[in-house]
Design a protein that fits this description.
This protein is α/β, with parallel strands linked by helices and 206 residues long. The chain has helices spanning 13-21, 41-48, 66-75, 89-93, 111-117, 164-171, 193-205, and strands at 4-7, 26-30, 56-61, 80-83, 99-105, 123-128, 153-155, 175-178. It has a single domain, classed as TIM Barrel (Alpha-Beta Barrel), CATH 3.20.20.70.
Length: 206
């Protein structure tokens, strides 16, 4: 089965267009104010209003006030919610929308236990652990820590065109999630058209 691709941390309409043109299945919008890739609801509207059908819009939150999540759902055409903080299953379920739960990977993480706890999640997104940073570290973790699960796995953390084919071969994830690996150097949130192209080509080779 073809590996799906989400390009996260989109901050400009043209970057969303690049992602779609090169075959991405989803774009990720960050609604976490402390992130260098954070955007407002108004910016998000501008980015997604011209997206073609069958491209999923994923909204990322980190321990957000429920009222803010509800506001984003009401104002924007969001397909999936992605939670990157310490949200409980009950918190995630209250919005009655499909959601992804991010897991910050360490050797001690019990993925089977987490998958059981978040049974209602559409998938688990596995990202690198870095103290005090909920995601977007740009660091790769040890893929051997990943346990085989019945729940879909989305692989993230330090992926780029140089390692994505190997990652797909080794982990066999349902989907992959990239942000920094397709950005202009030292420009967080600004995507590089050539890097997106190269990444997507390598996904097809994976």
């Amino acid at each position: 089965m073809r590996t799906r691709v989400k390009i996260c941390g989109i901050t400009r309409r043209q970057d969303a267009e690049f992602a779609v043109d090169f075959g991405a299945d989803a774009i990720g919008l960050v609604f976490y104010p402390k992130s260098p890739r954070a955007i407002t609801i108004a910016q998000a509207k501008d980015i997604i209003e011209l997206l073609p059908p069958f491209v999923s819009v994923v909204a990322l939150f980190v321990d957000a006030e429920p009222e803010y999540v509800y506001e984003c759902i009401e104002m924007l055409a969001i397909d999936l919610l992605q939670f990157h903080g310490d949200e409980s299953p009950e918190y995630c379920e209250q919005f009655e929308r499909p959601y992804i739960k991010a897991v910050r990977m360490r050797e001690s993480v019990d993925l089977h236990m987490i998958a059981q706890r978040y049974q209602s999640a559409s998938a688990l997104l596995l990202d690198s652990y870095q103290p005090g940073v909920p995601g977007g570290t740009g660091q790769k973790f040890n893929w051997s820590w990943i346990a085989e699960l019945e729940k879909p796995i989305i692989l993230a953390g330090g992926l780029d065109s140089n390692n994505i084919a190997l990652a797909i071969q080794q982990v066999k994830p349902y989907a992959v999630d990239v942000s920094g690996g397709v950005e202009i150097d030292m420009e967080k949130g600004i995507k590089d058209k050539e890097k997106i192209d190269a990444f997507m080509q390598e996904v097809l080779n994976g």
